[in-house]
Design brief:
heterodimer; A: about 280 residues; alpha+beta; 5-stranded mixed beta sheet; about 10% strand; rod-shaped; B: about 160 residues; mainly alpha; Rna Polymerase Sigma Factor, Chain: A; Arc Repressor Mutant, subunit A; 2 domains; about 70% helix; globular
Chain lengths: ~280, ~160
């Protein structure tokens, strides 16, 4: 090797990294790369958060879907109370008339629209006396639901009802309109029980009322309303039904003497939405 | 990512090489330390596989040279480097004379001189490492040698 080459080699050979610099470099790497506590990687956290949010939203959505905002009492052969959610779907139902659960179950009412559910109940009952009461928290909503049902189900008349009446009727296993009739009947015959009303159709209850009213009328001397009563008994849906177009007397007319509860069911709180 | 043990072993193996290359380009100790951290951090994070120790060393040299150039691009620096501003250099006059002569060369010659005379790479290997033409390396070596002869005198050539 030439002398200059040796000199250059020797000169470079004398250059070394000091131990302090090597130690600091090692410490730098240790701190930066090897000593960090395990952190949650965003790439893993994001899917987990998304899943959690999805579950939360799904649960909230299910909660909203399951929450009933209206109740519809359907009296068509069997008496069924439907609970309806904000999306106009049946979320649950209760058979108020015993012995009909199996038939109603077969209709798969849950998740159907209320109008379809009412139509199914009416059709399956084959009854001509279908009566529906709606309690949806406001008159506007009641009217909207009633209109929808009457459009969907020909011949069915709807009444508005308040939640308390509906609940009271439900407690004794009666539909709203039958409950109103039962109260009217009971006012004439205090010995009547809800079970008695359960076993009778609306028509039969009306006949009972008519019979008792007729007897009362006979005792008081006023029979004029008898005709109206007779008509009513023939109708069976006098309590504020659409069949009494414009008859303001319905709400406490002459036929109502001593009854005071003719007011379209719900003890004076009902409104008729029949086709007038 | 390489393990901490691998990184520490690499520091032990190549610290002197990195130090020498830093000396050729940088003016102060702080910059040298920055380059140390940069180079060995890149080494630790390098996900590739080295075919051999020689391959690994060549990779370290290339990364160090590039890191020094990047640092120098950051702000204006003088072309010449004073030995007095660099810590921990050999105090023997003979070595200081040679190193001063090398440091007085144009920057593009210094790496070539170091890699050829000290690391004993061939011109072809140096060309591959520094991404230069092989003929260019030969030319630069020749010119560097002439300048060193001039600085160090005929006696150095033997």
């Amino acid at each position: 090797m030439k002398p200059m080459d040796k000199r250059i080699q020797s000169a470079f050979g004398a250059v070394h990294a000091d131990e302090a610099m090597k130690a600091r470099t090692a410490a730098f790497l240790s701190k930066k790369l090897y000593d960090k506590p395990r952190r949650l990687h965003l790439s893993r956290a994001i899917p987990a958060v998304c899943c959690a949010l999805f579950v939360l939203i799904a649960c909230a959505g299910y909660g909203v879907y399951s929450m009933p905002v209206a109740a519809i009492s359907v009296e068509a052969g069997e008496t069924v109370e439907l609970k309806v959610n904000a999306f106009d779907r049946v979320v649950s139902y209760t058979c108020l008339s015993s012995g009909t659960e199996t038939d109603v179950e077969a209709l798969n009412l849950t998740h159907q629209t209320y109008s379809d559910a009412v139509a199914a109940l009416v059709e399956s009952s084959g009854s001509e006396e279908a009566a529906v009461s709606v309690a949806a928290g406001s008159e506007e909503k009641n009217a909207a639901i009633a209109a929808e049902i009457e459009t969907r189900c020909q011949g069915v008349n709807c009444q508005s009802a308040d939640a308390e009446t509906l609940e009271a009727a439900s407690e004794v296993g009666l539909g709203v309109q039958k409950y109103a009739a039962y109260l009217e009947w009971k006012s004439l015959d205090p010995s009547v029980t809800p079970e008695d009303a359960q076993t009778l159709s609306m028509r039969e209850i009306r006949e009972k009322i008519a019979a008792l009213s007729g007897e009362d009328s006979a005792t008081t001397g006023g029979n004029g309303p008898q005709d109206g009563t007779g008509q009513q008994s023939g109708n069976g849906q006098q309590s504020g039904t659409g069949l009494h177009d414009g008859t303001g007397q319905q709400n406490g007319g002459g036929a109502q003497d001593g009854t005071g509860q003719q007011n379209g069911g719900g003890q004076g709180s009902g409104h008729r939405y029949g086709r007038n | 990512m390489r393990s901490e043990q691998e990184a520490v072993q690499a520091i032990e193996r190549y610290a002197d090489t990195v130090r020498r290359i830093c000396m050729l380009h940088l003016k102060n100790y702080a910059d040298t330390e920055d380059i140390f951290q940069t180079v060995f951090l890149k080494y630790a994070l390098y996900s590739g596989t080295f075919e051999s120790d020689a391959h690994e060393k060549a990779w370290i040299i290339r990364v160090t040279v590039n890191a020094c150039k990047d640092l120098l691009k950051s702000f204006f620096r003088s072309r010449t480097v004073s030995l007095d501003s660099i810590g921990e250099l050999p105090y023997e006059d003979e070595h200081r004379e040679v190193l001063e002569a090398v440091l007085a060369l144009p920057a593009k010659y210094r790496d070539v001189v170091y890699l050829f005379y000290y690391e004993q790479y061939t011109a072809a290997e140096i060309a591959a490492m520094l991404h230069r033409n092989e003929n260019t390396i030969y030319t630069q070596l020749k010119r560097a040698k002439a300048l060193l002869k001039e600085k160090l005198g005929d006696e150095a050539d033997g």
